[in-house]
Design a protein that fits this description.
This protein is an all-alpha fold. The chain has one domain: ABC transporter involved in vitamin B12 uptake, BtuC. Helix content is about 75%, strand content about 0%. It has helices at about 20-35, 45-55, 60-95, 105-120, 125-130, 135-155, 165-190, 190-200, 210-225, 230-235, 240-245, 250-275, 280-290, 295-320, 330-350; strands at about 155-160, 160. The chain has a two-stranded antiparallel sheet. The longest helix has about 35 residues, at about 60-95. It is globular, with a radius of gyration of 21 Å.
């Protein structure tokens, strides 16, 4: 009979601050209020109260609040949470705290799909062009990300078992291949297409609408709801595949579900927001330092911190150079890269003691 799964993963203290979940919830609420009230329109907390009571807002303020800022806030929370949770799943699957959603080919495939749509989309038949409309680039990005992930999964799966190391190496090769193909398409692009490519690759929430959010939300929510059910299996996998099997974990099923959830989350997020880096890498890594490696704590905490940080980065991107807007991918890189370097240096000093 299989043993019961361990409640805790050995090797680290899980007695992180008990108040951290409440702190994260308060952080998300605070940045949400700042996101709704910050900007050139001049809305304040009092206007939010008036909107809540349904009294006193001008038509202009209603449009700004409900049609521009609220969908942007909702998309920021959903995309940030999904990218962070995808990072947790992949770090647990690869048993590497430096793993990132990009390593399974989603970002590379999504980027190539978006470039194809931007550069060659005008050559599509008129009926298909009219049917896709403004969804052409997000749809191509999503299909490209999913196609790359499925290809890597087929390459790494043999005899009913998935080799995650082979998947990682194949992902590196695929990224190089898609980078070369993207380079050829960039060479063929005109000036306007180059501007579109640059803007999309750096990421933005500026195009957030309720329609776009409704299209991406089912996959984002599916991934966020599926992830907690994988927590105990990922805890056992940290001990090694053999030990996880001995503890009764269906390792192959766990791999499939983790890859599916991370691909769905990252593919949908990249499709609607473009390329946004470091969220899926830095957020789980920071929380692992505070909470330890228990995925039952890491997954919900990462969703909260990832969503809050992306909303904060979006607020910074649209106010720092107002009335212009800085691409959010630049902001996350400026914030995430130094934090990541600090983590690496801290770990190196700890290993040398």
């Amino acid at each position: 009979m299989a043993q019961s799964l361990p409640r805790l993963v050995p090797g680290r203290s899980l007695g992180g601050p008990a108040a951290l979940p409440l702190i994260l919830v308060a952080f998300v609420l605070a940045v949400s209020v700042l996101s709704l009230t910050g900007g050139a329109a001049g809305l304040g907390p009092g206007d939010l109260f008036q909107a809540w009571t349904g009294d006193g807002l001008t038509e202009r303020d209603r449009v700004v609040l409900f049609d521009i800022r609220l969908p942007r806030l909702a998309m920021g929370l959903a995309v940030g949470a999904s990218l962070a949770v995808a990072g947790v799943l992949l770090q647990g699957l690869f048993r590497n705290p430096l793993a990132d959603p990009g390593i399974v080919g989603i970002n590379a495939g999504a980027g190539l799909g978006a470039v194809l749509a931007i550069v060659l989309g005008g050559a599509l038949p008129a009926g298909l062009l009219a049917a896709t409309g403004s969804w052409q680039v997000p749809l191509a990005a999503f299909l490209g990300g999913w196609g790359a992930t499925l290809l890597l999964y087929r390459i790494a799966t043999h005899g009913g078992r998935t080799d995650v190391t082979l998947m990682l190496l194949a992902g590196i090769a695929l990224a190089a291949l898609t980078g070369a193909a993207t380079g050829v398409l960039v060479y063929l692009a005109d000036d306007q297409q180059l501007r579109d490519l640059t803007f999309w690759s750096m990421g933005s929430l500026a195009g957030a609408t309720w329609t776009k959010l409704a299209a991406a939300l089912p996959l984002l929510l599916l991934s966020l709801l599926l992830a907690p059910s994988l927590a105990r299996g990922l805890n056992a996998l940290a001990l090694g595949e053999g030990q996880a099997l001995h503890l009764g974990v269906e390792v192959q099923r766990l791999k499939r579900l983790a890859i599916f959830a991370s691909a769905a989350a990252t593919g949908a997020a990249v499709a609607v927001s473009g390329g946004i880096g470091f969220v899926g890498l830095v957020v789980p890594h920071l929380l692992r330092q505070a909470l330890g490696p228990d995925h039952r704590r890491l997954i919900p905490a990462s969703a909260l911190l990832g969503g809050g940080l992306l909303v904060l980065a979006d607020l910074f991107s649209r106010t720092i150079v107002a009335p212009a807007e800085l691409p959010i991918g630049i902001v996350t890189a400026l914030l995430g890269a130094p934090v990541f370097l600090w983590i690496l240096l801290t770990q190196r000093r700890g290993s040398m003691v």
